[in-house]
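This section describes the prediction task in plain terms. A model, or a person checking by hand, is given the sequence of a single protein chain and must write out its three-dimensional structure as a string of tokens. No templates, partner chains or ligands are provided. The sample shown here is typical of the held-out split.
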Amino acid sequence: MEDFKFTSLEELYKKILPALNTKVADLRRHNIKYIKEEDIWHYLRNNYWCKADKLSLGEIVHDILSTPNSELEIYMDKHNKKAKEKEDLL
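The expected answer:
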């Protein structure tokens, strides 16, 4: 099997965008319409992949598709709350 090498996070993001799109479609089927592809990307980068070493493309796609919707909702609720607090300080 061919190993994929990425020279930037942007290149990796573009490669996994179809999986992110699939996850967003799944969220929409469950009436969760406010979570976007980049939200899933940031959640996984900051909570799953930062602790991992040498992830394969298959593992990354698996993580995207198998992350529970409830985890993404909790993350977004916390993220939005922090953003609101920062906005209130300005």
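For orientation: The radius of gyration is 14 Å.
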